[in-house]
Amino acid sequence: MRIGIVGSGHVGGTLARLFGKAGHEVAVANSRGPETLRGLVDELDGQVRAATVEEAARFGDVVVVAVPFGRYAGLPADPLSGKIVIDAGNYYPERDGHYPELDEDRTTSSELLQRHLGGARVVKAFNTMRWDHLREYGRQSSAMQRYGMPVSGDDVDAKRRVSDLIEQIGFEPVDAGGLADGRRQQPGSPIYGADLTGGELHERLGAP
Ligand SMILES: NC(=O)c1ccc[n+]([C@@H]2O[C@H](COP(=O)([O-])OP(=O)(O)OC[C@H]3O[C@@H](n4cnc5c(N)ncnc54)[C@H](OP(=O)(O)O)[C@@H]3O)[C@@H](O)[C@H]2O)c1
């Protein structure tokens, strides 16, 4: 599969590493331009290339957004139209500035991203685990108990395809409901940063 990644930091860089290793074609972008990504791309296995944000968005069948939440309004909606967009981001007001609709729990950060991107199919995933655990905790043997990864979204097919990707890098996808349910995997929720197995995560989430 072709995977675009917008954001090349802790989370974006880690997912570029994991998806490249899993055999996917990856195009990764940051805010400063492809020439600043040479070091990262050179050290990664597989077919990983540096791109502009626009190129990474057009390249991917699936595009990961791994930038600070406060930057979401700058993401280009046109090239992401029709794409599956994985929202790995979290809202931290001290970093991102205050959004009253989030502070008052009237909506979720993923719903705001979905509204901005219009034609994309947004799925929230990879936001609950620390980047270094994400890098290290995947288990390729199904004989080993896997860490769970919550997946929320309103498009069933998009969620299934993201769940397949999660399995390929060694985690157990766990259905966490729709985008509005994304609040159950936000900072401050009981599963956030908890590093639970798939079974424990199912139990803690209960029915979506
Ligand atoms: N760190 C974690 O353990 C962790 C775990 C789960 C989820 N998250 C969430 O994931 C998101 C990313 O976190 P991170 O720790 O990976 O951050 P990070 O290491 O600071 O990396 C952020 C990346 O976003 C890029 N970026 C910023 N604005 C951009 C824009 N307008 N267009 C394109 N790229 C842009 C930056 O590019 P430049 O360097 O060129 O500016 C950088 O590559 C955040 O929402 C965070 O809350 C973090």
Automatic annotation (TrEMBL):
Residues 2-90 form the Pyrroline-5-carboxylate reductase catalytic N-terminal domain. Gene3D superfamilies: NAD(P)-binding Rossmann-like Domain. Residues 176-208 are annotated as: Disordered. The keyword Oxidoreductase applies. Keywords: Oxidoreductase. This is NADPH-dependent F420 reductase. It comes from Plantactinospora alkalitolerans.
